[in-house]
Structure prediction request, 522 residues.
Amino acid sequence: MKYFNMEGSPFVEDTGGEHEKEKDEAEEKEEENKDDPQTKLTEGKQQKLATWGPCFYNRVGKEVYNYVGHEIVIEEGLDSYAGMIWPGALALCHYLDTHRDQLNLTDKAVLEIGAGTGLVSVVAALLGSWVTATDLPEVLNNTRVNLSRNTRGRCRHTPQVAPLTWGYDLEHTYPPPVYRYDYVLAADVVYHHDFLDELLVTMKHFCKPGTTLIWANKVRFETDLVFTENFEKAFHTSLLTEEGDMKIFMATSREGDFEMDQKLEIKDLLGEVDAKTGEEESCDDKLYCACQEVGSDRLEDSGEQEVEEEKKLKSEEEETVTSEDSKTDEQKEIVESISEQEHLNQTAVRRNWAPSIICRPDKDIYHYVGQDIVIYESIDSFGAMMWPAALALCSYLENNKHTVDLQGKEVLELGAGTGLVAIVASLLGASVTATDLPEVLGNLRANLMRNTRGRCRHTPQVASLTWGYDMEHAYPSPVCRYDYVLAADVVYHHDFLDELLVTMKHFCKPGTTLIWANKVRF
Prediction:
């Protein structure tokens, strides 16, 4: 008898002769011991044990691999395809391990679809990324075990596991404003099944502008070639490596092809620069505490906001030119700095693939709630700097525990930046969700994890939040309710103050307390 794997190669062979001989010997022995009283007693005990004793019909295979300088032990499961190690996973792991300079996964948000045994996710986590491994709910137990076994105590970030059914209600379960990733990984997800259309829909859902999709696959069937053709039509693709039937593709979104999308991206980047041009001036820090009353009026959004913002931006540029002579030296420096940053960001749009290091991040140590807190500033412009109001709010929370008791409370922070306020709130016992723009979340996550792991009752969460943008859809009021909303130095020289107020009102419902610290500059 021969047993074959999925590709037709025999891996177990039994000639049958030895088996028949052993069977005859067993029958003879059984006949001899049939009338033995001791044998009957033993059989009775075995009969009782059989009613509860577990049975093993198959022994799960265990494989040992070596990537990123670590020995990785993977136990295969009984979950059919998802419980096996596939060649595409091995090829992708090898590529990630040997091309670290081209694909730097450190502190990047990575999603794996069809994670199976979890080998690719383990390697990505060992390379320093924030990994979310997804697959069908029924196969995730083995994925969790393999991830935990091979990453605990070895990785910068603890990998997460989540269920994902391709093409099923993705906008609801994984809304794009919240779930954005730097990389999407997939290995051997294309084989003989009826869900190739759903797979392509899922890839397009997660691979938005700014996301890179890396897909490794071994061609087995004609349907694989059809999917590859549709894949190349759906994305900008390039072939990273090819060895026989094994190919690894890199893909990016085609959504940025349209001229209108390009203009919006440039406008968003310029808006972010304008939003972060605060310079410190000599003025006292102020704390504001607001509790929204029941029945307060809802702030209405204007349907012509984008047009008004564009007109306002042009008007401000004209005023800047006409009043240049009357400005102080300090104001002139601010304007020059904005112009320089606008030029840099426009260049970044044109060359969004080119990595660059503007400066070396600074490290500061603070002491709150009896703990040393190490904060790394980043190169993410104003969102990754330490602002004075954050320090003022941290001191206030620490010194007024009886007035503001955060123990066991649900807390949301707007514009979390480096994460210092969120860390202090977590150390004070709160369950914290720290939010900011997607591009500054990498450093925010790192600071939160570094300073709260093993110290806090609740692990703080990080989420993307753009003020005033489809708030009810991304953060529905019946679900996202908080005891406290915190904000520090979120008001400065930018064009999104109306959106900020809309966001504050959205989250500050009856029963919620908003605490806002701010330094007056303009």
Residues 329-350 form the longest helix (22 residues).
